[in-house]
Design brief:
2 copies of one chain form a homodimer. With about 200 residues, the first copy, chain A, is an alpha/beta fold. Helix content of chain A is about 45%, strand content about 10%. The termini of chain A are far apart. The structure holds zinc ion (2 copies). The site of one zinc ion has 8 residues of chain A, from α4. Chains A, B: InterPro entries: DNA_Rcmb_RecR (IPR000093), Rcmb_RecR (IPR023627), Rcmb_RecR_Znf (IPR015967), TOPRIM_dom (IPR006171), TOPRIM_RecR (IPR034137). Chains A, B: Belongs to the RecR family. Chains A, B: This is Recombination protein RecR.
Chain lengths: ~200, ~200
Protein backbone atom coordinates (compact mmCIF):
# COMPACT_ATOMS: atom_id res chain seq x y z
CA UNK A 1 0.00 0.00 0.00
CA UNK A 2 1.44 3.35 -1.02
CA UNK A 3 1.58 6.24 1.42
CA UNK A 4 -0.95 9.05 1.09
CA UNK A 5 0.76 12.43 1.26
CA UNK A 6 -1.85 14.68 2.83
CA UNK A 7 -3.26 12.06 5.18
CA UNK A 8 0.14 11.05 6.51
CA UNK A 9 1.19 14.66 6.89
CA UNK A 10 -1.89 15.35 9.00
CA UNK A 11 -1.24 12.28 11.11
CA UNK A 12 2.38 13.33 11.65
CA UNK A 13 1.33 16.88 12.51
CA UNK A 14 -1.18 15.70 15.13
CA UNK A 15 1.67 14.01 17.00
CA UNK A 16 2.83 17.51 17.94
CA UNK A 17 -0.13 17.60 20.35
CA UNK A 18 0.96 16.74 23.91
CA UNK A 19 -0.03 13.19 24.89
CA UNK A 20 -0.79 12.04 21.33
CA UNK A 21 1.21 9.07 20.00
CA UNK A 22 1.27 7.57 16.49
CA UNK A 23 -1.77 5.31 17.03
CA UNK A 24 -4.01 8.07 18.42
CA UNK A 25 -2.82 10.48 15.74
CA UNK A 26 -3.85 8.03 13.04
CA UNK A 27 -7.18 7.34 14.73
CA UNK A 28 -7.86 11.09 14.99
CA UNK A 29 -6.99 11.54 11.31
CA UNK A 30 -9.30 8.74 10.15
CA UNK A 31 -12.10 9.95 12.41
CA UNK A 32 -11.94 13.54 11.21
CA UNK A 33 -11.63 12.74 7.51
CA UNK A 34 -14.39 10.13 7.52
CA UNK A 35 -16.82 11.22 10.21
CA UNK A 36 -16.21 14.86 11.13
CA UNK A 37 -14.87 16.97 8.28
CA UNK A 38 -16.71 19.95 9.76
CA UNK A 39 -14.76 19.46 13.00
CA UNK A 40 -11.53 19.21 11.03
CA UNK A 41 -12.24 22.52 9.34
CA UNK A 42 -13.07 24.12 12.70
CA UNK A 43 -9.77 22.93 14.15
CA UNK A 44 -7.72 23.98 11.14
CA UNK A 45 -9.19 27.47 11.00
CA UNK A 46 -9.17 27.98 14.80
CA UNK A 47 -5.52 26.93 14.92
CA UNK A 48 -4.35 29.43 12.29
CA UNK A 49 -6.57 32.17 13.67
CA UNK A 50 -5.32 31.72 17.26
CA UNK A 51 -1.72 31.80 16.01
CA UNK A 52 -2.49 35.09 14.37
CA UNK A 53 -4.45 36.70 17.22
CA UNK A 54 -3.07 35.38 20.51
CA UNK A 55 0.19 36.51 22.09
CA UNK A 56 1.55 37.29 25.56
CA UNK A 57 0.41 40.24 27.69
CA UNK A 58 3.10 42.93 27.83
CA UNK A 59 2.78 43.09 31.63
CA UNK A 60 1.72 39.72 33.09
CA UNK A 61 2.74 37.44 30.21
CA UNK A 62 -0.61 35.58 30.03
CA UNK A 63 -2.39 34.99 26.73
CA UNK A 64 -4.32 37.93 25.33
CA UNK A 65 -5.47 39.31 22.01
CA UNK A 66 -4.52 42.83 23.09
CA UNK A 67 -1.22 44.49 23.95
CA UNK A 68 -2.12 44.28 27.66
CA UNK A 69 -4.73 41.94 29.16
CA UNK A 70 -7.94 43.10 30.86
CA UNK A 71 -6.87 42.02 34.34
CA UNK A 72 -3.67 44.07 34.12
CA UNK A 73 -5.67 47.09 32.96
CA UNK A 74 -8.30 46.71 35.73
CA UNK A 75 -7.79 49.73 38.00
CA UNK A 76 -9.59 47.99 40.90
CA UNK A 77 -6.76 45.47 41.36
CA UNK A 78 -4.12 46.26 43.97
CA UNK A 79 -0.97 47.23 42.11
CA UNK A 80 1.32 46.55 45.08
CA UNK A 81 0.85 42.74 44.97
CA UNK A 82 2.10 40.43 42.25
CA UNK A 83 1.21 36.72 42.27
CA UNK A 84 3.47 34.42 40.21
CA UNK A 85 1.81 31.32 38.70
CA UNK A 86 2.97 28.70 36.23
CA UNK A 87 -0.01 28.78 33.87
CA UNK A 88 -3.26 30.58 33.00
CA UNK A 89 -5.16 27.59 34.47
CA UNK A 90 -3.46 28.16 37.83
CA UNK A 91 -4.30 31.87 37.67
CA UNK A 92 -7.94 30.99 37.01
CA UNK A 93 -8.00 28.67 40.04
CA UNK A 94 -6.72 31.46 42.27
CA UNK A 95 -9.22 33.95 40.85
CA UNK A 96 -12.01 31.52 41.72
CA UNK A 97 -11.04 31.58 45.40
CA UNK A 98 -11.81 35.34 45.55
CA UNK A 99 -8.98 35.72 48.12
CA UNK A 100 -6.59 37.74 45.99
CA UNK A 101 -7.06 41.24 44.63
CA UNK A 102 -3.58 41.98 43.27
CA UNK A 103 -2.01 41.43 39.85
CA UNK A 104 -0.33 38.37 38.32
CA UNK A 105 2.70 37.20 36.43
CA UNK A 106 2.28 33.99 34.43
CA UNK A 107 5.54 32.09 33.84
CA UNK A 108 4.04 29.85 31.13
CA UNK A 109 6.20 27.03 32.44
CA UNK A 110 8.47 26.10 35.33
CA UNK A 111 12.12 25.34 35.81
CA UNK A 112 12.92 21.78 34.80
CA UNK A 113 16.67 21.29 34.25
CA UNK A 114 16.17 17.61 33.29
CA UNK A 115 13.93 18.71 30.39
CA UNK A 116 16.28 21.55 29.47
CA UNK A 117 13.95 24.26 30.82
CA UNK A 118 16.12 26.94 32.39
CA UNK A 119 15.46 30.46 33.75
CA UNK A 120 15.55 31.92 30.22
CA UNK A 121 12.51 29.78 29.24
CA UNK A 122 10.16 31.02 31.98
CA UNK A 123 10.48 34.74 31.27
CA UNK A 124 12.44 35.60 34.42
CA UNK A 125 13.90 38.79 32.97
CA UNK A 126 10.39 39.99 32.16
CA UNK A 127 9.27 39.05 35.70
CA UNK A 128 12.16 40.96 37.28
CA UNK A 129 11.36 44.04 35.17
CA UNK A 130 7.70 43.73 36.13
CA UNK A 131 8.36 43.20 39.85
CA UNK A 132 10.77 46.14 40.09
CA UNK A 133 8.41 48.71 38.57
CA UNK A 134 8.40 50.65 41.86
CA UNK A 135 4.73 49.87 42.61
CA UNK A 136 5.00 46.18 43.51
CA UNK A 137 5.78 45.67 47.22
CA UNK A 138 5.06 41.94 47.66
CA UNK A 139 5.48 39.03 45.28
CA UNK A 140 3.38 35.94 46.17
CA UNK A 141 4.85 32.74 44.72
CA UNK A 142 2.04 30.36 43.71
CA UNK A 143 3.94 27.83 41.62
CA UNK A 144 2.96 24.19 42.11
CA UNK A 145 4.04 22.28 45.21
CA UNK A 146 5.83 19.51 43.37
CA UNK A 147 9.61 19.33 42.91
CA UNK A 148 9.78 21.54 39.83
CA UNK A 149 7.37 24.12 41.21
CA UNK A 150 9.28 24.32 44.50
CA UNK A 151 12.59 24.71 42.69
CA UNK A 152 11.07 27.44 40.55
CA UNK A 153 9.73 29.26 43.62
CA UNK A 154 13.13 29.00 45.33
CA UNK A 155 14.98 30.36 42.31
CA UNK A 156 12.57 33.28 41.86
CA UNK A 157 12.58 34.02 45.59
CA UNK A 158 16.38 34.31 45.67
CA UNK A 159 16.40 36.47 42.54
CA UNK A 160 13.75 38.91 43.79
CA UNK A 161 14.93 39.11 47.41
CA UNK A 162 18.36 40.08 46.06
CA UNK A 163 16.55 43.11 44.60
CA UNK A 164 15.03 44.01 47.94
CA UNK A 165 11.47 42.79 47.30
CA UNK A 166 9.24 41.13 49.90
CA UNK A 167 8.60 37.59 48.65
CA UNK A 168 5.97 35.22 50.07
CA UNK A 169 4.85 31.70 49.23
CA UNK A 170 1.37 30.15 49.39
CA UNK A 171 1.09 28.25 52.68
CA UNK A 172 1.44 24.49 52.55
CA UNK A 173 -2.28 24.04 52.83
CA UNK A 174 -1.85 22.79 49.31
CA UNK A 175 -0.97 19.08 49.61
CA UNK A 176 2.72 18.35 49.00
CA UNK A 177 3.18 16.97 45.50
CA UNK A 178 -0.16 18.48 44.44
CA UNK A 179 -0.78 20.52 41.31
CA UNK A 180 -2.95 23.64 41.72
CA UNK A 181 -5.19 22.79 38.80
CA UNK A 182 -6.50 19.71 40.67
CA UNK A 183 -6.86 21.17 44.18
CA UNK A 184 -10.21 22.39 45.53
CA UNK A 185 -10.62 26.20 45.80
CA UNK A 186 -11.14 26.02 49.59
CA UNK A 187 -7.67 24.62 50.12
CA UNK A 188 -6.19 27.22 47.81
CA UNK A 189 -8.07 29.97 49.66
CA UNK A 190 -6.61 28.82 53.01
CA UNK A 191 -3.15 28.63 51.52
CA UNK A 192 -3.50 32.16 50.19
CA UNK A 193 -4.46 33.51 53.62
CA UNK A 194 -1.60 31.57 55.30
CA UNK A 195 1.07 32.61 52.82
CA UNK A 196 4.42 33.12 54.53
CA UNK A 197 7.40 35.40 53.92
CA UNK A 198 10.34 33.48 52.44
CA UNK B 1 -11.02 37.14 33.99
CA UNK B 2 -12.56 37.82 30.58
CA UNK B 3 -12.68 35.09 27.94
CA UNK B 4 -10.24 35.21 25.04
CA UNK B 5 -12.05 34.66 21.76
CA UNK B 6 -9.46 32.94 19.58
CA UNK B 7 -7.92 30.89 22.37
CA UNK B 8 -11.26 29.58 23.59
CA UNK B 9 -12.40 28.84 20.06
CA UNK B 10 -9.29 26.73 19.50
CA UNK B 11 -9.80 24.91 22.78
CA UNK B 12 -13.44 24.20 21.88
CA UNK B 13 -12.45 23.02 18.40
CA UNK B 14 -9.85 20.58 19.75
CA UNK B 15 -12.61 18.83 21.69
CA UNK B 16 -13.82 17.51 18.33
CA UNK B 17 -10.80 15.18 18.41
CA UNK B 18 -11.78 11.70 19.63
CA UNK B 19 -10.69 11.09 23.23
CA UNK B 20 -10.00 14.76 24.01
CA UNK B 21 -11.97 16.32 26.89
CA UNK B 22 -12.07 19.96 28.05
CA UNK B 23 -8.96 19.70 30.26
CA UNK B 24 -6.75 18.11 27.58
CA UNK B 25 -8.07 20.51 24.95
CA UNK B 26 -7.05 23.47 27.10
CA UNK B 27 -3.66 21.92 27.87
CA UNK B 28 -3.06 21.32 24.15
CA UNK B 29 -4.04 24.91 23.37
CA UNK B 30 -1.69 26.39 25.97
CA UNK B 31 1.14 24.09 24.92
CA UNK B 32 0.86 24.93 21.23
CA UNK B 33 0.47 28.69 21.69
CA UNK B 34 3.30 28.99 24.21
CA UNK B 35 5.77 26.27 23.30
CA UNK B 36 5.09 24.97 19.79
CA UNK B 37 3.64 27.58 17.46
CA UNK B 38 5.43 25.87 14.58
CA UNK B 39 3.57 22.64 15.45
CA UNK B 40 0.30 24.57 15.61
CA UNK B 41 0.88 25.95 12.13
CA UNK B 42 1.77 22.45 10.84
CA UNK B 43 -1.46 21.05 12.27
CA UNK B 44 -3.61 23.90 10.96
CA UNK B 45 -2.22 23.73 7.44
CA UNK B 46 -2.17 19.90 7.30
CA UNK B 47 -5.78 19.80 8.47
CA UNK B 48 -7.08 22.14 5.76
CA UNK B 49 -4.88 20.54 3.11
CA UNK B 50 -6.04 17.00 3.94
CA UNK B 51 -9.67 18.14 3.82
CA UNK B 52 -9.02 19.48 0.37
CA UNK B 53 -7.02 16.54 -1.00
CA UNK B 54 -8.28 13.35 0.65
CA UNK B 55 -11.52 11.57 -0.25
CA UNK B 56 -12.81 8.01 -0.67
CA UNK B 57 -11.66 5.64 -3.45
CA UNK B 58 -14.41 5.16 -6.03
CA UNK B 59 -13.97 1.38 -5.85
CA UNK B 60 -12.78 0.27 -2.39
CA UNK B 61 -13.84 3.33 -0.35
CA UNK B 62 -10.46 3.78 1.39
CA UNK B 63 -8.77 7.18 1.63
CA UNK B 64 -6.96 8.34 -1.48
CA UNK B 65 -5.91 11.54 -3.19
CA UNK B 66 -6.92 10.13 -6.58
CA UNK B 67 -10.24 9.02 -8.05
CA UNK B 68 -9.23 5.37 -7.55
CA UNK B 69 -6.51 4.17 -5.14
CA UNK B 70 -3.29 2.47 -6.22
CA UNK B 71 -4.22 -0.93 -4.82
CA UNK B 72 -7.48 -1.02 -6.78
CA UNK B 73 -5.58 -0.07 -9.94
CA UNK B 74 -2.86 -2.72 -9.39
CA UNK B 75 -3.38 -5.27 -12.17
CA UNK B 76 -1.46 -7.95 -10.25
CA UNK B 77 -4.19 -8.26 -7.62
CA UNK B 78 -6.78 -11.02 -8.07
CA UNK B 79 -10.00 -9.33 -9.12
CA UNK B 80 -12.19 -12.31 -8.13
CA UNK B 81 -11.62 -11.83 -4.36
CA UNK B 82 -12.89 -8.94 -2.27
CA UNK B 83 -11.92 -8.59 1.40
CA UNK B 84 -14.18 -6.39 3.57
CA UNK B 85 -12.51 -4.54 6.46
CA UNK B 86 -13.69 -1.87 8.88
CA UNK B 87 -10.77 0.57 8.51
CA UNK B 88 -7.60 1.38 6.56
CA UNK B 89 -5.58 0.23 9.62
CA UNK B 90 -7.18 -3.23 9.39
CA UNK B 91 -6.44 -3.38 5.67
CA UNK B 92 -2.81 -2.54 6.38
CA UNK B 93 -2.59 -5.34 8.96
CA UNK B 94 -3.87 -7.88 6.41
CA UNK B 95 -1.48 -6.62 3.74
CA UNK B 96 1.40 -7.16 6.17
CA UNK B 97 0.56 -10.88 6.47
CA UNK B 98 1.24 -11.34 2.71
CA UNK B 99 -1.51 -14.03 2.62
CA UNK B 100 -4.02 -12.18 0.51
CA UNK B 101 -3.69 -11.11 -3.12
CA UNK B 102 -7.23 -9.92 -3.87
CA UNK B 103 -8.88 -6.52 -3.58
CA UNK B 104 -10.54 -4.77 -0.64
CA UNK B 105 -13.59 -2.86 0.44
CA UNK B 106 -13.16 -0.54 3.43
CA UNK B 107 -16.40 0.11 5.34
CA UNK B 108 -14.94 3.07 7.30
CA UNK B 109 -17.01 1.96 10.26
CA UNK B 110 -19.14 -0.91 11.54
CA UNK B 111 -22.78 -1.43 12.42
CA UNK B 112 -23.52 -0.10 15.89
CA UNK B 113 -27.27 0.38 16.41
CA UNK B 114 -26.73 1.69 19.97
CA UNK B 115 -24.60 4.53 18.56
CA UNK B 116 -27.05 5.12 15.72
CA UNK B 117 -24.73 3.60 13.09
CA UNK B 118 -26.93 1.71 10.63
CA UNK B 119 -26.30 0.05 7.22
CA UNK B 120 -26.54 3.41 5.45
CA UNK B 121 -23.48 4.69 7.39
CA UNK B 122 -21.06 1.93 6.36
CA UNK B 123 -21.47 2.30 2.60
CA UNK B 124 -23.36 -0.98 2.11
CA UNK B 125 -24.94 0.09 -1.19
CA UNK B 126 -21.49 0.89 -2.55
CA UNK B 127 -20.23 -2.49 -1.32
CA UNK B 128 -23.11 -4.34 -3.00
CA UNK B 129 -22.47 -2.51 -6.30
CA UNK B 130 -18.77 -3.31 -5.99
CA UNK B 131 -19.28 -6.99 -5.09
CA UNK B 132 -21.76 -7.57 -7.93
CA UNK B 133 -19.49 -6.24 -10.69
CA UNK B 134 -19.42 -9.68 -12.35
CA UNK B 135 -15.73 -10.25 -11.58
CA UNK B 136 -15.89 -10.81 -7.80
CA UNK B 137 -16.54 -14.47 -6.93
CA UNK B 138 -15.72 -14.57 -3.21
CA UNK B 139 -16.14 -11.92 -0.50
CA UNK B 140 -13.94 -12.46 2.59
CA UNK B 141 -15.37 -10.77 5.68
CA UNK B 142 -12.55 -9.45 7.87
CA UNK B 143 -14.46 -7.22 10.25
CA UNK B 144 -13.38 -7.33 13.89
CA UNK B 145 -14.32 -10.28 16.09
CA UNK B 146 -16.10 -8.23 18.74
CA UNK B 147 -19.89 -7.88 18.96
CA UNK B 148 -20.21 -5.02 16.50
CA UNK B 149 -17.82 -6.56 13.98
CA UNK B 150 -19.60 -9.91 14.14
CA UNK B 151 -23.00 -8.24 13.68
CA UNK B 152 -21.61 -6.30 10.73
CA UNK B 153 -20.22 -9.50 9.16
CA UNK B 154 -23.54 -11.28 9.67
CA UNK B 155 -25.53 -8.47 8.07
CA UNK B 156 -23.19 -8.21 5.06
CA UNK B 157 -23.11 -11.97 4.68
CA UNK B 158 -26.91 -12.21 4.47
CA UNK B 159 -27.08 -9.29 2.07
CA UNK B 160 -24.45 -10.66 -0.32
CA UNK B 161 -25.52 -14.34 -0.17
CA UNK B 162 -29.02 -13.19 -1.18
CA UNK B 163 -27.32 -11.96 -4.38
CA UNK B 164 -25.71 -15.32 -5.01
CA UNK B 165 -22.16 -14.48 -3.92
CA UNK B 166 -19.80 -16.84 -2.08
CA UNK B 167 -19.12 -15.25 1.31
CA UNK B 168 -16.38 -16.36 3.72
CA UNK B 169 -15.20 -15.17 7.12
CA UNK B 170 -11.68 -15.08 8.59
CA UNK B 171 -11.24 -18.18 10.79
CA UNK B 172 -11.49 -17.72 14.51
CA UNK B 173 -7.76 -17.82 14.88
CA UNK B 174 -8.29 -14.20 15.82
CA UNK B 175 -9.04 -14.20 19.58
CA UNK B 176 -12.73 -13.65 20.37
CA UNK B 177 -13.27 -10.04 21.42
CA UNK B 178 -10.02 -9.05 19.70
CA UNK B 179 -9.54 -6.09 17.37
CA UNK B 180 -7.45 -6.69 14.26
CA UNK B 181 -5.27 -3.66 14.80
CA UNK B 182 -3.85 -5.19 17.98
CA UNK B 183 -3.41 -8.81 16.85
CA UNK B 184 -0.05 -10.16 15.68
CA UNK B 185 0.28 -10.76 11.92
CA UNK B 186 0.94 -14.51 12.41
CA UNK B 187 -2.48 -15.01 13.96
CA UNK B 188 -4.10 -13.02 11.19
CA UNK B 189 -2.23 -15.06 8.58
CA UNK B 190 -3.54 -18.32 10.05
CA UNK B 191 -7.05 -16.93 10.21
CA UNK B 192 -6.82 -15.91 6.55
CA UNK B 193 -5.77 -19.43 5.52
CA UNK B 194 -8.53 -21.03 7.64
CA UNK B 195 -11.31 -18.74 6.47
CA UNK B 196 -14.61 -20.59 6.21
CA UNK B 197 -17.66 -20.28 3.97
CA UNK B 198 -20.63 -18.72 5.82
ZN1 LIG C 1 -1.72 41.00 31.73
ZN1 LIG D 1 -9.41 1.61 -3.85
Amino acid sequence: MKSLGSLEQLSEALRRLPGVGPKSALRMTYHLLQHDREGAELIGRAMLSALNMVHNCSLCNTFTENETCELCLNQERERSMLCVVESPSDQLMIEQTMTYKGLYFVLMGRLSPLDGVGPQHIHLEKLVRRATDGQVREVVLATNFNNEGEATAHYISETLKARGLLVSRLARGVPVGGELEYVDPGTIARAMLDRRVT
